[in-house]
Design goal:
Layout (H helix, E strand, L loop, with lengths): L8 E3 L7 H12 L4 E8 L1 H4 L8 E5 L12 H4 L1 E9 L5 E5 L4 E6 L2 H16 L8 H25 L1 H8 L13 H31 L11 H13 L7 H22 L1
Antiparallel strand pairs: 1-6, 2-3, 2-4, 4-5, 5-6
Helix pairs in contact: 1-4, 5-6, 5-7, 7-8, 7-9
Length: 264
């Protein structure tokens, strides 16, 4: 879907970017403007415990961002990057790179053009891997959500379960008459939960390392991420019986699907 620039508020693409595209976007944001102020919240490791260090840099147009050797070093280790840019025709735009949002504070043609150029630069450098904190969270809770959803559906469509839960508490059986396959489903889901937690952790690593500018960490590849996942999977021991074989095949199939989706 094509981006829209006709409002006073908008968002940049919700993905990680290659470093070159972020450099081009920051250059488009700052070059040729009347003035700017950029507030850089440094990473915890970059200032915590260091005497006299402040948790943020405040940069002005007189500080001259240096993009000749790539990303300016003052922006590299950041948790948040927040900029306010004033154009020569009086336009003012506020950009929050951490939240991937922009907001026009004073309207002008030049500031509209600047936002388009920033957005175009970021879109040219979208990283193909689909890593996000939202995806990690959904994968982490997926087995438990599946158990709850299937259990609730059974309570709606199974007459034996409806009768059980509609009966008075004092005359109700001690255990609900769920079908046998539901307990097998729960077993599979629970065995899958460690795998899903490991996958979620692996997906969350690039998001954390990407920092306030959402730059994909170049030393991290999908092979290294899922190599760690494979080693973790090998350490899981399952009982050697017929049910464990079914569980193992199911886990392998789900892991293969997730690996394909997030690395294609």
């Amino acid at each position: 879907m094509a981006p829209k620039y006709d409002g006073r508020f908008g968002r940049f693409p919700n993905r990680l970017y290659v470093e070159e595209s972020v450099v081009n976007a920051l250059r488009a944001l700052t070059i040729g403007c009347e003035r700017y102020i950029i507030i850089v919240n440094k990473s915890w490791s970059d200032w915590l415990g260091k005497k006299g260090e402040r948790p943020e840099h405040v940069l002005f147009e007189t500080d001259a961002l240096d993009f000749d050797q790539g990303l300016d070093g003052r922006l590299r280790k950041s948790r948040k990057v927040h900029a306010i840019v004033v154009d020569q025709d009086g336009g003012v735009v506020e950009v929050d790179m951490k939240a991937r949002t922009w907001r026009i504070l004073a309207e002008s043609d030049q500031v509209r053009k600047r936002i388009r150029e920033v957005d175009d630069a970021l879109r040219e450098g979208l990283h193909p891997q689909r890593f996000s904190s939202t995806a990690a969270a959904w994968i982490a809770v997926a087995p438990f959500v599946a158990i709850i959803v299937v259990g609730m559906l059974l309570q709606l469509i199974d007459p034996n379960l409806r009768s059980h839960f509609d009966a008075p508490a004092d005359s109700r059986a001690s255990s609900a008459p769920y079908p046998g396959w539901f307990y097998d489903f729960m077993t599979v889901a629970l065995y899958c939960s460690p795998i899903c937690l490991v996958i979620a952790a692996m997906l969350f690593v690039p998001v954390v390392l990407a920092g306030g500018l959402h730059i994909w960490p170049e030393l991290l590849t999908w092979r290294s991420v899922f190599g760690m996942l494979f080693q973790a999977g090998r350490s899981i021991q399952l009982p050697q019986d017929g049910r464990s074989i079914f569980v193992g095949v199911t886990i392998a199939f789900i892991s293969a699907l997730l690996t394909f989706w997030f690395t294609k």
